[in-house]
Amino acid sequence: MGFWLNEKHTDGYSVKWKLNEILYTEQSDFQHLAVVNTFDFGKALVLDGIVQTTEKDEYIYHEMIVHPAMMAHPNPQKILVIGGGDGGTVREVTRYQSVAEVDLVEIDEKVVNICRKYLPSISSALGDKRVKIIIEDGLKFVKGKENYYDLVIVDSSDPIGPAIGLFGEEFYTDIYNSLKEGGILVAQSESPVFNRDLLAGVHKNINGIFPITRTYLTAIATYIGGFWTFTCGSKKYDPLDVTPDMDMLKEMNLKYYNEDIHQACFALPNFVRQIFE
Ligand code: AG3
Q1: Closest C-alpha among 276, 139, 265, 270 to residue 197
Q2: In CATH, what is the architecture of 58-276?
Q3: Catalytic site residue 245?
Q4: Which candidate in 72, 96, 120, 145 could, as Cys together with 242 as Cys, close a disulfide (CB 3.0–4.6 Å)?
């Protein structure tokens, strides 16, 4: 018994989540929002029917979207996070003492508010004094910004609805311009199994703009298809050549990312390599 969330991904593939409770639902100007208490994964944020993050495995995604690039940059001070209104990415970024300023640009204020209320372990760093929350469309925010950020992280939802433009060439060009010399972009680039063409497009777009492009992989139980990808565009520092700072790693005491994962995540299976050929 109990009730189930049917998370529909394609006409032939859905994931069913048994729920204990629906804590919140609302239609905002941008999307349908829900916070649910799942039977197996703790509380979860659901946007337009797609599970974005769960208390049980959010650390894998949030550590992996942040640390490979943060470790690749010698002195990341000014960080821009686009999307990511749940705060998980910001939490990982604020672990670094070098960070002086974090701008979180989220289009939907309701996401920030409900995550602060229902998902405190994820949103915990949103109150950090280095963090500025800006409610605005990320596409507009980056336009005209020049030579300002060390790292820009695109923590978007799937390429439908409000997030669609966050996978396009023009957006990545604006991000390139907003980055300082040595700056790095990281974008969540979806499933290589379910979203092959999108990943091919993201990689091609970033590769056409940045001198160094690196896609890396992780596995996140909550997301579909087993693999999940992130793609870096870097002006100068190649994340592949970097050895993470071991003192920092020790101090941060993370649950997923470590020096071996840093090397391993850039190893791509042939079917993923072929996506970029
Ligand atoms: N953003 C990426 C969620 C993608 C889920 N898509 C899917 N399962 N098809 C997560 C935001 C966490 N801060």
Answers
A1: 276
A2: 3-Layer(aba) Sandwich (3.40)
A3: no
A4: 72
Among candidate residues 103, 108, 155, 158, the one labeled active-site is 155
pLDDT tens over the chain, length 277 residues: 579 999 999 999 999 999 999 999 999 999 999 999 999 999 999 999 999 999 999 999 999 999 999 999 999 999 999 999 999 999 999 999 999 999 999 999 999 999 999 999 999 999 999 999 999 999 999 999 999 999 999 999 999 877 889 999 999 999 999 999 999 999 999 999 999 999 999 999 999 999 999 999 999 999 998 899 999 999 999 999 999 999 999 999 999 999 999 999 999 999 999 999 9
Which residues sit with their C-beta closer than 6 Å to ligand 1? 9, 50, 52-53, 61, 84, 86, 88-89, 155, 157-158, 188, 223-224
Ligand 1 center from residue 267 Cα (angstroms) = 22
Pairwise CA distance, residues 153 & 187, whole Å: 6
CATH number assigned to the domain with residue range 3-54, chosen from the 4 options 3.40.50.620, 2.30.140.10, 3.40.30.10, 3.50.50.60: 2.30.140.10
Vertex 209, ends 211 and 203: CA angle to 5°?
90
C-alpha 240/C-alpha 265 separation (Å) is 9
Q: Is 83 helix (H, G, I), strand (E, B) or coil?
A: strand
